[in-house]
Amino acid sequence: MASSVAGPRAPQTVADIPPTLTGAVLDWYEICARDLPWRDRRVSPWAVLVSEIMLQQTPVNRVLPVWHAWLDRWPTAPALAAEPAGEAVRMWGRLGYPRRALRLHQTATAVTELHGGRIPDELDQLLKLPGVGTYTARAVAAFAFRQRHAVIDVNVRRFVGRAVSGRDDQRTTTSRRDLELVESLLPDDPQTAARASAAFMELGALVCIARTPRCDACPVRQKCAWLRMGSPPADGPSRRPQGYAGTDRQVRGRLLAVLRESDGPVHQDSLDAVWDEPAQRNRALGGLVDDGLAVMVAPGVYALPGDPAIGD
């Protein structure tokens, strides 16, 4: 009878995880981490929160100038809360997904009214802030307050999925099991754990990237379950980048640019000039109003929310 040889397997339990994996990532991070301003231990929790909201679905190089400008104008949550929401949308510029600006304004208002202008340092209190979800709350707790929490974005999920579980994880949702697995990789010391959370994220962003991972530069390549298993492809259909040209998103962006660049209310004629397809243009404009990014102040006249030129 021919003998069978079992193929490589991925770790099945926490006990199977190589004990030096996290240490190797931390050593790599000490040398290779990018010098990003929100990682400076002197920055405020508010500055960290702003960075986390801005970095959602947006590259670092686009966030940097807006983050600096935002903090120069509104160095604290109460400073932003004191101004109309429309000013946050205007200041957001072309960063994309402008509803994040409204969420930040709502968060600043809640922090001012409920927490005396200080970002709360307890996870359950962070989760109660408007516009702050599981990822953002855990990221602020870890990176602003140096607490021990599993922080999982797409980069962390991909790195841990490959290195520990042996699969190319393309999911965008986080389960309780995911949180438990990542937390099991964190050192017991809260400060070191927070640094490990940042290191996992950085390695996923710079080395363990989605399409062409730089495995030769990876500090845990000798321990990586995915490499041992022959780098199997991701389960399910691959996600393709969403197009932009000709979409409602592009039309919304053009309409919002007209409102941002105006000192006051804008007549319909100025908005009509940015897109020549009436049905799509009206649909995009209606979406901006529904999302609270624009208000109709008179028939055929629009402005950013809370524009001082039109009153409250």
Description:
- The protein is mainly α and 312 residues long.
- A hairpin with a 2-residue loop joins strand 2 and strand 3 (301-303).
- The radius of gyration is 23 Å and the shape is globular.
- Helix 9 packs across helix 11 (190-206) and helix 13 packs across helix 15 (278-290).
- The chain folds into 3 domains: 45-143, Hypothetical protein, domain 2 (Endonuclease III, domain 1, Orthogonal Bundle), CATH 1.10.340; 150-228, Endonuclease Iii, domain 2 (Orthogonal Bundle); 248-303, Arc Repressor Mutant, subunit A (Orthogonal Bundle), CATH 1.10.10.
- It has a 3-stranded antiparallel beta sheet.
- The protein has helices at 21-32, 45-54, 60-73, 77-81, 85-92, 99-114, 123-127, 134-143, 154-165, 176-185, 190-206, 225-228, 248-261, 268-272, 278-290, and strands at 266-267, 295-298, 301-303.
What oligomeric state do these chains adopt?
A: single chain
β-sheet strand percentage: under 5%
Count of domains: 3
The dominant shape is globular
The main pleated sheet reads as: 3 strands, antiparallel
According to CATH, the fold-level topology of the largest domain is: Endonuclease III, domain 1
CATH architecture of the largest domain: Orthogonal Bundle
- Poorly predicted sequence stretches spanning 5 or more consecutive residues: 1-18
Spatially, the strands of the biggest sheet line up as 1-3-2
- Tell me the name of the CATH class of the largest domain: Mainly Alpha
Mean of pLDDT = 89
